[in-house]
Amino acid sequence: MSALHLVHWSVHLDSSVLNRRCPRCDLVRAHTFSGRARLNANGRHLDAWLLYTCAHCSRTAKVPVLERAPVRSVDRALLLGLESNDPAVLGPLCARLVGGDAFSVRGDDLPSGGVVVLHVAAGLSVRLDRVLARGLGCSRAEVSRRCPDAPLRRSAADGQRVRVLPRACNETTRSDGVVPAYGTSRSPR
Fold first, then answer.
1. Helix (H) or strand (E) holding 7
2. pLDDT tens digits along 61-103
3. What is the dihedral of CA 51, 19, 100, 14, to 10 degrees?
4. Residue-range domain boundaries for the chain
């Protein structure tokens, strides 16, 4: 009987990363929040953007927070926070933009099957299948195959242990039970 690997992962709130398409890279890339906002007033209307930077090519992207909003309808504290780049005001705006994708998983890699122990930050509610998919670097469908006993559609809990099966072999099996050579699934002609 072989011993299972025991790996600890910590799950934290991370509202500073936004995944979006970068026009320069022409791919969906991670964009990090620069800590700055940009405002534009045109007459009595106000536009506001948060500035994000592509992690790969450093191109700046503007993500709208307010679009053509009447100046008098904007909360005074929000307006002053946007003008002064106040982190206490900009942080919740980032979390609202990122939505359910605002978490990061840190810990050791799981080379093969084993047990993952989760340490979830207080107040963070995220589905277990999303945490495992991000930590394992695979799709949620593969997570459901590799973690058949886990309650994947429930929120991850602090101290929760999840058994992860090893990654399946990439070879396909024909209907007669024979594994074809070189991983092809074609039958001989």
1. strand 5-13
2. 998 989 999 999 999 999 999 999 988 888 778 777 766 666 7
3. -60
4. 5-12+102-164, 16-98
